[in-house]
Amino acid sequence: MKNTRVWIILAFAAALSMAAGCAGPEGDSNVDSTDDLSAGADEARSRTASFETFVGRDGQTYFYMLAGNGEKLLRSEGYSSHDAALDGIAALRRVGTATANYQLRPAVNGEWYFNVRSTNGAVLATSETYVTRYNATRARNSIANLINVANSINAANTTARFQIFRGENGQYYARLRAANGEIVLTSEGYVSSTGATNVVESLRRNATVSASYEIRTSANGQYYFVVIAPNNETIGTSETYTTRSNATRAVDTVVALLRANPTLQLQR
């Protein structure tokens, strides 16, 4: 999947006052006016952010962390698959809240950048370059705070859940609701609630892998996707989307949701 936007940090409000008012590190007493790191830029950056995956010319999958204004904040190392890149995003969310995991380095042209490293020392993502060390430090603090706020809001608002319900035809169905209440997946009908419960467990195992999804065209020309178990059984079907790209983004949304919440509540 190329150029897909991942929902994990899509929209939230945050004030990055610490970045606007932090003191400069040793040897950097002034902010270079050529860097767009003013308090206004920090405020705009704080409102929204997202991750976007793409396939490079080398065939590997990468991700960007983008600010709400489209500015590239971080770029990842290459991954062998889309799912591996999603794991990299999850790892960045875990370690990117602590500035101790950011390594400031001088670039060959005398500017500054930083790497975000995982607990095993591997580089997860690299920043753009900044004219001064001070500006790179401010950007580091802004990004760490941005990820921290996003994680806190996501944790507070995670009300996504699986549900089992009985349809008018007397059969039992399983469905997945997103945090905003939207139904994103619905199963086939089963004669017993046990069958629907088993489908929930199958979704937990299989719907975290994007290869289990297949995008299809509906009779009205719109798009939807299905989740297919290893035995080729369709275990979930989405709503319809007006474009294929919207359906693709929805797949990433569901994958990210289930990866981040492997023990979602089951309501009956």
Percent strand equals: 25-35%
Largest sheet: 7 strands, antiparallel
Helix percentage range = 25-40%
* Main β-sheet, spatial strand arrangement: 1-2-3-4-7-6-5
N-to-C SSE series?
EHHEEEHEEEHEEEHEEEHE
Describe the fold and architecture.
- It is a single chain.
- With 268 residues, the protein is an alpha+beta fold.
- It has two domains: 4-156, Roll (PH-domain like); 161-267, PH-domain like (Roll).
- 31% of the residues lie in helices and 27% in strands.
- It has helices spanning 17-21, 39-47, 82-95, 133-156, 193-206, 244-260, and strands at 4-6, 49-55, 61-67, 72-76, 102-106, 112-117, 123-127, 161-166, 172-177, 183-186, 213-217, 223-228, 234-237, 265-267.
- The strands form three sheets. It has a seven-stranded antiparallel sheet.
- Strand 3 and strand 4 (72-76) form a beta hairpin.
- The longest helix has 24 residues, at 133-156.
- The protein is elongated.
Task: Write the topology of this structure.
Elements: E1 4-6, H1 17-21, H2 39-47, E2 49-55, E3 61-67, E4 72-76, H3 82-95, E5 102-106, E6 112-117, E7 123-127, H4 133-156, E8 161-166, E9 172-177, E10 183-186, H5 193-206, E11 213-217, E12 223-228, E13 234-237, H6 244-260, E14 265-267
